[in-house]
Amino acid sequence: MGKLDGRVVIVTGAARGQGEQEARLFAAEGARVVVADVLDDQGETVAKEIGPGAATYVHLDVGEEADWTAAVTAAKDAFGTIDGLVNNAGILRFNELTATPLDEFQQVVRVNQVGAFLGIKTVAPEIEAAGGGSIVSTASYTGLTGMAYVGAYAATKHAIIGLTRVAALELAPKGIRVNAVCPGAIDTAMSNPAQLDPEADVARSGEALDRFYRKLVPLGRAGRPEEVARLALFLTAEEDSAYITGQPFVIDGGWLAGVSVL
Ligand code: NAD
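Output (structure tokens, whole complex):
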């Protein structure tokens, strides 16, 4: 028996990285999964590999309310109901706050913050209609602490934790649990852009990152997207987390634990 047998879960940003691993793991645990992204070719491939009947792909720009409405319709057409959501889609931009153009700040807010808001707003009524379920949003360790040069990103990740707490309070009577995951450095295209560039010296850049994380992270490495997927699974599975709602869960190899003097 899978931990998500009978469940139907929308995972945003599921064409690659953590979202992809969440979609694959949830399907392996018995869920039917809606793979949602703006990277249509990659998303279609992920859904196809998971298998027809177990996954379907929808084009969903999380900042567009009309896309959410269409995605919900497509999910219900494919699987009849929806009782889970992982608000995973996100973008990162590096800039000093005083040098950040307004457009760039708003672009990050639109995807990370408005996207999570629209996801909760659109999908929660469907989950309620299905008899209850769960929402997991991907914040970040920068949702709990500051980090220089990612001001827009950190602001949106703090906002996701606020949204999570409010949604948990408002949706508990409707049988919906709402939690957030707060990953540290995870080895995906976002933190290691060399993964996307075939011309880049991926091996060297990987080595440099490895050295960096060995120094910085108590557990001595970046996290793997599958490890975050396991936490999202825990927070989605009723049998594991039925009494947990409104909480941010840090998964960062100990980075936020404190300052090491060695
Ligand atoms: P990633 O860049 O590989 O994946 C992000 C996914 O989101 C991509 O598939 C992308 O196409 C999708 N996306 C971007 N804009 C979108 C939009 N408007 N609508 C729908 N989909 C969109 O990186 P990842 O590490 O897998 O990121 C997943 C989540 O984890 C993000 O919310 C990110 O902020 C968060 N996070 C990542 C790290 C890290 O170190 N990688 C750390 C903390 C938090």
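Residues 8-186+223-254 form a domain with the Rossmann fold fold (CATH 3.40.50.720).
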